[in-house]
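Reopening this ticket.

The earlier resolution said the output was attached, but the attachment link was broken on my side. Pasting everything inline this time so it's all in one place.
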Amino acid sequence: MDVLDNLTIPLFPLDTVLFPGGVLPLRIFEPRYLDMISDCMKTESGIGVILIEKGHESGAAAKVHEFGTLSFISYWHKRNDGMLGITLKGQQRFRVLSTDVKDNQLTIAEIELLPDFIKTQTAHDSEEHINLLQQIISRLEPPYTTMEKHYDDLDWVSARLIELLPLSLKDKQNMLVISDVNERMEYLQPLLVSMEMI
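Inline output:
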């Protein structure tokens, strides 16, 4: 697996998997993450969205998986409940090289960026997947309905299906690691069939 560059970024351990090109609306209330968001907005730096392997989203720093997605804040607003609402947009996958937990339990990681998914033209047999994704997105609210859409790109279609469908987090994480869209679809297809989605 080719490596592009190394960065040091804060991690946002969550019970979710975000792919490049995806959007993730969040409510922020913990002081460590409010500070993290403030710092990242000032410096226009990225945040590593990464699946929790052991632990919880709040409280002590969680143990995380090896692969995640570098994301950037695309929108923020102060909510009526006093929390900060943000939308993260996934940009690029990364692999964690090392981590350092600060006193406030914020995890800082040295990461290596991984190559972008290769844009892959959707084929005739992708029609069911495209229709399914369009149906799912049509039932959602912003930022999903307002996100930039690429139904002609099988990587984009497969990534959005993986994010939005009620698949196990283990399966989602496994598919995040797969760079080749054909391999990813081979993994995803039987899951869709078992859920009677197609």
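Reporter confirms the inline version is readable. Strands lie at 5-14, 23-28, 47-54, 63-78, 84-101, 107-113. Residues 69 and 93 are 4 Å apart (CA to CA).
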